[in-house]
Every structure is written in C-alpha cells, then in structure tokens.
Design a protein that fits this description.
The protein is α+β, with helices and mostly antiparallel strands. The chain is built from six helices and three strands.
Length: 120
C-alpha cells in the first residue's frame, strides 16, 4: 500500500473510525498522538500570523454527559451512538481544520453544557 493510498483511506474514515485507529496505533507502538500534536507546532517555530483553522479536541465530558453528547451529535452530524462513543472516549479529536468561528462556537456550546474543549 502506498502512502497516497493510506492517506486516501484515512480521508474516507468517519471520526469514530479515526478515533479507533489512533487508539490502536497508540497501543501497538506505545506512542501518544497528544504528545505529537503538542510538540508538532513548537518544533516548527512560532507562527507569525493568526491561525484561521483549528483542531477541536474534546478534553473532558464533564458532569453533564448527556448534554455534551447532544451538542457533539448536532455539530458533527453524528448518530447518537457515535456521539456517545466519542464523548465517552475523551480526550478525543472531534474534528481537524475547523474554521475559527465554528471552532469557537463549538467550544462555547460544549463548555456551557459542562464539557471541556481545547482548540489547537
């Protein structure tokens, strides 16, 4: 399988499938995707311009799990079971490359419901 074929396969995956893949890779090789995501931008140097797209990460579901599940389901267009699995799997990347306005709106709504979100 070529690198391009792997990228194409990953592009076609749902958020839930990507989450499962990341966890499997972390277990297989004993690595953490969170550590890479944190170290990645720092290694590249400071960005002189303001970011226009963010990776939205649900870091905690908080006390109001059902309210957070409803919001995640709505903003990502997921089914109930996919949203529940994602929220219960926190910390988890909800979506990558989200426009700044959308990312901030999602963060506000989830945090108002009791969850915790990090924009990277």
């Amino acid at each position: 399988m070529t690198q391009e074929q792997i990228i194409e396969a990953v592009e076609k995956m749902t958020v839930l499938e990507l989450n499962t893949l990341v966890k499997a890779i972390e277990e297989k090789w004993g690595v953490s995707a969170a550590a890479v995501a944190v170290a990645g931008p720092a290694a590249g140097g400071a960005a002189a311009e303001e970011k226009s797209e963010f990776n939205v990460e649900l870091t905690s579901m908080g006390e109001q799990k059902i309210a957070v599940i409803k919001i995640v389901k709505e903003v990502l267009g997921l089914g109930l079971s996919e949203a529940k699995t994602m929220v219960e799997g926190a910390p988890v990347l909800m979506k990558a490359d989200v426009k700044k306005a959308d990312a901030e709106a999602w963060k506000k709504r989830i945090e108002e419901a009791g969850g915790k979100v990090t924009l990277k």
